[in-house]
Amino acid sequence: MQARQSRRVCAVLAILLASLIPLNLPSASAEVVCCGSNEFELYLIGENNDATMTPFENELVGINEKGVSQSAQGTEEIETWSIIWKQSATIPESTWRFNIAYEVENAAGVYANATIDIQIGNNVYTAESGTPGAFMTGTDMIAIDIEIPQIAVSMNDEIEVTFAVRSLLFTQPGDESSIRFVWGEDTESALRVNLPLVTIDMPNSLVVGDEVFFPVILKSGFGERMWSSLEDFEFKVGGLVISDVRSPSIVSGGVEVPFVWNPGSNPTDGNYQINLSILLNNGDVPLTSGRMHEITFEEGGGTQNYHFGEPARAVSSRLDIDIDVKYDGKHITRSVDLEIEGSMASWLRWGMDNIGNNSLPSDHLFTQIQGASIPSNLRENGRVDDAEKEALLNHIDGSTRNLEVFLGNTGLALNPDGLFEADLFDMNPEVELDLMGVSGIDDAPMKIRIDVVLELSGEERILFISDFIRPQLGTGIWTMNSEPSVDLTATLTTSAFSGLFTVIKEDLPENMQVSHYRTGISEVVSIKVDGLSDNDKFEVEYVVAGSALFSPFVTLLATILLLVSGIVIGVRLTQYRSRWIVGISSIAFGGLMSYVYVLSALPPTFVMGIAAACAVLMIPLAIISPRHDYERTLGDDSLSDDYERALAREIPTVDCPACGISNPVETKVRPVRIPCGGCGRNLRIEG
Prior knowledge:
Immunoglobulin-like, 10 helices
């Protein structure tokens, strides 16, 4: 009986509690506001291992092609393009269309059975043009439809497309008939698909101090590129366009972008409509989404906090590289300073603060770093502590392999083979890290310095610098406002007894300046370029002089000695001649050799050869110099007239031993006979 009464009491209490529950539930903390499956183009780009597909037209760079001649037998695979899908989703049943441009050469046309295979995860779907196949002529597009059923695709599944042709039959073929398939920029070669392009989540807004944060989460099979490679976007609060976008954070399958609104003084509580429009490509219809936010402001500013996750690398970053190389004949020392600013600086600082974070993916760069020495109270505290900085330094400074990985695709997206003369393993690198006074998770500049030493062992041709930015899809990591933002300054200086024979330059970008000159007793090679991108391919090498005989000091000394010798020879040969030709030639040869030695930076053998030629040229120049006006014999006039003219000039004289008369000597030819002006005797002068 008592148990039955207890159950009645509990039932009454339950009814009373249920009556206290409000009928209107509070809004969810986040709303999925967009979008379902869309039809869009996956443009074909790249070749071989770099062949992939992209929905972003601004990622189309360059044109690729493959030709098939009439002699081809069997099946000819043109290319396989693939992407890694970054979001779990359901692909609806639909018809996909593969389009690729072609050009028939030296034939009226060609019949071909074209085949397309599409693999989604472990499922393969095939379609072909049939037999006798499609007829292709001139320049056009071939299209193949393929039916795709409804299928689930998981995160990190691969979508692979293979195009092949077989049974080619050319009509009215000529010599070397062929068909070329072309894809890439301006070709419109693409796979038209029906896929979930992007899911847009809009969590509740956060009032942080005097600002309001509106987080927007973009999840897509294209990961963070869904934000970094967009053509354009527009975010509005009411009718006000918001341009303040803080550092995006990486989330599973996409990126979280915080838009920040400053409402000013005395803001009003209420419901605010926000709208986001994103433009995939120029000319497309924008994808629009929005929701209503209920915002309550607090006196003195909001007390909520916005937690920044892992910063997205491919947003907006700048890289300044300063390379200083010293060559002394036996060793080459190189210092590489990397000054990093922007989202990459935030990502590196965030990574150091998250060393030891077990929630990071197993393949994450900072998961590989040992964090046992970092106290637990210093981890994930929003700043880089000395222990975390030392943990990263010990990781990359203690292992060449770790340094290469840090510089590679999972880190700075740089190729060490282009930044250094040889394998890092052979150069004992030393690394320094400078946060430049900013330890918080911030876009402020930071600097990484790598010092290496290479011992020469007979090498003559050595790499100075080559393209070092690893290819990235989209705008890439190293861009600011979608423009390349890698600036490079490199300087090579030799010692007095270690010279260079020549500098070899290949495929330099138009804005790259390479200078090679000598300054006194050293040689200098300098490189300056702004706005490098991963599309720039170049290489600069130098050939070292094999002996100290071709060093700057010896070359300069030999040049001076040869020039001085030539001038001395010219002066001696013009002892009795006019020296204006020799004088002008000496100045001209001196200026020429200054240019040849300092500015032209010709090989040492050429410099000394030109100096020797200048010295030899002094001999004929001296010989053709005119004699002085007073170097002539006596005229046909009387002796007294000659005597009077001689007295009017300042010329040497000789006294006659017979009569004592002083006689002028008007020639410098020796020996010579002259008549005495007094007694008429012939005087012989030998000295």
